[in-house]
Design the sequence.
């Protein structure tokens, strides 16, 4: 069906054939497959809402269930207001959701008040929305229509972004519209965008001629020029001319932007209206919602059709299904701006009185009516913030506290509320906002601890980006100034500073961390201190830090999320990889119950790295996928780059060298790697692994060589990450004719690591020395590298077996080489490291062992990371609903993926999955 074809009740939409065609494909894709999300952008008046109306009508004609929401400026500070409006027709289904999802949604929407205040799990609430939509779509294909998304509350946008990424397999689609320069950041990069641009000259002329009184002559040319192809401007300029044909010169407003000119034209209608009509129009504009809240109908005049009639005749409003709607958001702006402050204040007070039973809305209208600081209104907003926090609406809480601070007379209390607002913004994953709020505290108070807390928050907000220097400029002075006055606060700052210091790799910052740590005498076993020491001196202070680690782990509370995260990070840096997997896995279990997006990304990414090193590649792959999407949604820049770099490394290790290069280069396309040494090294690792997989040893050497400087005494680009590539660099160097250069790097690196080395790093150094040795001393180093303590890092341990086996075979010691090569082959097969499987098999055959020809990649190799994860969970016996709860997907989406997985694996049911997956499901992972 052609969506653009007009019916008797649907006038033709001029000049939008391309847009209509693409929207029709989206609607049809809700059931037939294809892209499930489309973001429509355009300037005010471009016709976005008209296109949305047509999409909704077309979807309804195709039997779709259409759910709609339109953002309103008056509700953007109310947590989950938009998603509540969207789901209103489905709310009866909340009772049929799984118990925890249903409870989370009821609390988020204020449908029930708990006996004791408690915070909801944001991920459970999002999953509840997804399940509700999935259940509805199972009965009838679904189209979600979101208009004026730039005015939706942040909580609703987060839920919509979560849903949008999980529509694959659902008979559902999402069409979202926003102003061109105000597309919400969760939708501005990762979804298809379509712009409703200006109409061309021909379409503009046709639209002019379709008006009741089309202009002629010079005025016609003037309107075409001034409208710039904007449909609303063409219509309104024509209407303005028709009302006053004698006014042929509109040059007085030519200098204004088009949006301002349209607002002026709408405002020009107001003086002609009766006073009662102007009053209700102002109430409607001040309400700031697409639909009037129920209590407003009790306000005198709001339900009288005769009061609205003059405004309807002028085209300022439309009456649809008994509901009064302002014709365009610019009408609202024009009405509101045309009123005096006294008139606007009176309107907000009327609205506040009418909304006495809705304390959150009432508080915001009282705030809009305030004439200056007012402690009662500030308290009302602070109470609203507390309710929002308990519902998981951290962004709404931050907004309420920010406004409460502005209205608080006492400067010290104002500072405290700004800090509380920044804390809520941090929990809501809004680092830029955190920085803006925290930076305003300095001018309000001289209290050292309040100023320190504000600096701590500002430093955190920059630490999750790539602005490491700016972050540490806040955090290190806090840690030093509070070392004796408030040791707990000092260690908070020290632990927060450790992360940007690690990522920046700057020696100065690491020296400062160690110096300031020694100034804090209290709480010697705090996890912040352990993380700080581990991250800044992972080799030279390893023995001391491990002692502190043991004591801190003993004292750690079983349900302490932050302790598990920091100790897990410290364990990973110190090569206590099994401990890292356990602690970070424990943190992930906590986060699935109560989390913020930014923290989820941090923990998921750290866990993915630990899983990769421990040989759990399948789990690492799916965990990195989770980390990437959560980091992207939360604006956690480092993890949003690091996670796909880890995925690229995994692809290369499993033989997809082309896909690995594409993934790695795409991950860093917008990043200045010179300012982030850690990410630079990860990028080179991924590209080096891809070169190894392809058999291009000169390229592998060049990539890994760049993890060290080109100085006379080469230094590691990153003091920690670079060291783990020494053995691979040596392996590439031998085959690329660069052994002498690699010797120089190895000698320089050995001087930086100290005496207390982890079994992992010791094995890496011995392997590098063995590969670069020219005499029989190589054997001693190989045997040292084979220490069983290194088996906790299976891929690296297998490489030692392979290299030593090759070395022995080339010295005609095949009998000694065979068991080593056989062990290497077994490791590589279990990991799925196909290029190394082929190499180990070839070496074994050369050593006189009959080895079956290398099989084609296992069936599981054809699965995506998400499909493999779903297949493994299904093989363990989990139901679709259990898997969905684990992966934050709907049960229907799990069924969709299994429907694709079965034929890829050559099975017909779940019972066969365990046998087919074999070692992929039950091996090292």
Sequence:
């Amino acid at each position: 069906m052609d969506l653009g074809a007009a019916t008797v009740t649907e006038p033709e939409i001029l000049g939008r054939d391309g847009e209509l065609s693409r929207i029709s494909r989206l609607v049809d894709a809700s059931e037939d497959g294809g892209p499930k999300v489309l973001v429509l952008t355009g300037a005010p008046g471009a016709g976005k809402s008209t296109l949305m109306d047509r999409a909704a009508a077309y979807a309804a004609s195709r039997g779709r269930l259409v759910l709609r929401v339109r953002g309103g400026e008056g509700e953007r500070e109310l947590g989950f207001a938009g998603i509540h409006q969207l789901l209103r027709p489905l709310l009866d289904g909340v009772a049929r959701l799984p118990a925890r999802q249903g409870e989370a949604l009821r609390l988020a929407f204020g449908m029930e008040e708990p006996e004791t205040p408690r915070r909801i799990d944001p991920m459970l609430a999002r999953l509840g929305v997804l399940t509700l939509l999935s259940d509805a779509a199972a009965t009838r294909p679904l189209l979600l229509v979101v208009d004026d998304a730039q005015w939706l509350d942040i909580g609703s946008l987060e839920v919509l972004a979560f849903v949008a990424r999980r529509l694959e397999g659902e008979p559902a689609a999402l069409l979202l519209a926003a102003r061109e320069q105000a597309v919400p950041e969760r939708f501005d990069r990762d979804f298809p965008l379509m712009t409703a641009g200006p109409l061309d000259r021909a379409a503009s002329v046709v639209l002019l001629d379709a008006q009741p009184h089309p202009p002629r002559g010079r005025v016609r040319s003037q309107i075409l020029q001034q409208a710039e192809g904007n449909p609303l401007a063409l219509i309104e300029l024509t209407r303005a001319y028709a009302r006053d044909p004698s006014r042929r010169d509109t040059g007085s407003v030519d200098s204004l932007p088009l949006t301002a000119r349209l607002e002026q034209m709408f405002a020009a209608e107001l003086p002609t209206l009766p006073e009662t009509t102007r009053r209700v129009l102002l109430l409607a504009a001040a309400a700031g919602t697409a639909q009037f809240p129920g209590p407003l109908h009790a306000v005198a005049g709001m339900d009288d059709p005769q009061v609205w009639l003059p405004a309807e005749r002028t085209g300022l409003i439309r009456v649809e299904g008994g509901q009064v709607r302002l014709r365009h958001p610019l009408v609202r702006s024009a009405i509101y701006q045309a009123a005096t402050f006294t008139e606007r204040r009176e309107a907000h007070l009327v609205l506040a009185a009418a909304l006495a039973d809705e304390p959150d809305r009432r508080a915001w209208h009282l705030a809009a009516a305030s004439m200056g600081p007012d402690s009662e209104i500030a308290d009302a907003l602070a109470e609203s913030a507390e309710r929002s926090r308990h519902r998981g609406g951290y962004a709404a809480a931050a907004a309420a506290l920010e406004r409460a601070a502005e209205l608080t007379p006492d400067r010290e209390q104002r500072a405290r509320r700004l800090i509380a607002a920044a804390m809520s913004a941090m929990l809501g994953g809004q680092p830029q906002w955190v920085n803006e709020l925290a930076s305003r505290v300095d001018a309000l108070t001289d209290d050292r601890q309040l100023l320190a807390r504000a600096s701590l928050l500002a430093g955190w907000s920059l630490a999750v980006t790539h602005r490491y220097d700016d972050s540490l400029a806040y955090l290190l002075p806090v840690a030093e100034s509070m070392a004796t006055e408030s040791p707990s606060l000092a260690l908070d700052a020290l632990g927060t500073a450790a992360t940007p210091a690690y990522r920046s790799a700057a020696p100065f910052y690491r020296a400062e961390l160690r110096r300031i740590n020694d100034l804090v005498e209290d709480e010697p076993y705090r996890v912040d201190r352990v993380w700080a020491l581990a991250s800044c001196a992972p080799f030279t202070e390893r023995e001391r830090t491990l002692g502190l680690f043991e004591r801190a782990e003993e004292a750690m509370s079983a349900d302490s999320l932050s302790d598990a995260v920091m100790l897990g990070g410290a364990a990973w840096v110190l090569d206590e990889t099994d401990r890292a997997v356990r602690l970070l896995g424990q943190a992930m279990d906590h986060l699935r119950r109560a989390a913020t997006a930014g923290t989820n990304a941090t923990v998921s990414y750290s866990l993915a790295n630990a899983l990769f090193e421990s040989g759990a590649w399948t789990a690492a792959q799916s965990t990195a996928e989770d980390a990437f999407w959560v980091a992207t949604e939360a604006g956690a820049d480092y993890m949003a780059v690091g996670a796909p770099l880890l995925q690229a490394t995994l692809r290369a290790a499993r033989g997809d060298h082309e896909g690995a290069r594409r993934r790695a280069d795409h991950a860093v396309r917008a990043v200045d790697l010179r300012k982030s040494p850690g990410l630079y090294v990860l990028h080179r690792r991924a590209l080096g692994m891809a070169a190894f997989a392809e058999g291009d040893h000169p390229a592998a050497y060049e990539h890994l060589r760049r993890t060290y400087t080109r100085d006379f005494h080469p230094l590691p680009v990153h003091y920690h990450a670079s060291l783990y590539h020494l053995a691979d660099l040596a392996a590439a160097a031998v085959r690329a004719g660069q052994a002498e250069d690699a010797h120089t790097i190895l000698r320089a690196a050995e001087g930086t690591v100290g005496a207390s080395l982890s079994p992992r790093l010791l094995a890496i150094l011995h392997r590098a020395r063995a590969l670069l040795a020219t005499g029989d001393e190589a054997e001693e180093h190989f045997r040292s590298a084979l220490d069983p303590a290194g088996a906790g890092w299976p891929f690296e341990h297998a490489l030692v077996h392979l290299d030593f086996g090759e070395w022995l075979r080339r010295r005609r010691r095949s009998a000694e080489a065979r068991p080593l090569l056989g062990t290497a082959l077994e490791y590589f097969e279990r990991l799925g490291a196909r290029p190394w499987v082929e190499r180990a098999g070839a070496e074994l055959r050369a050593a006189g062992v009959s080895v079956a020809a290398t099989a084609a990649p296992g069936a599981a190799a054809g699965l995506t990371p998400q499909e493999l994860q779903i297949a493994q969970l299904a093989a363990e016996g989990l139901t679709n609903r259990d898997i969905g709860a684990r992966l934050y997907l709907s049960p229907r989406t799990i069924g969709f993926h299994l429907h694709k997985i079965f034929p890829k694996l050559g099975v017909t049911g779940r019972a066969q999955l365990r046998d087919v997956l074999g070692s992929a499901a039950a091996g090292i992972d």
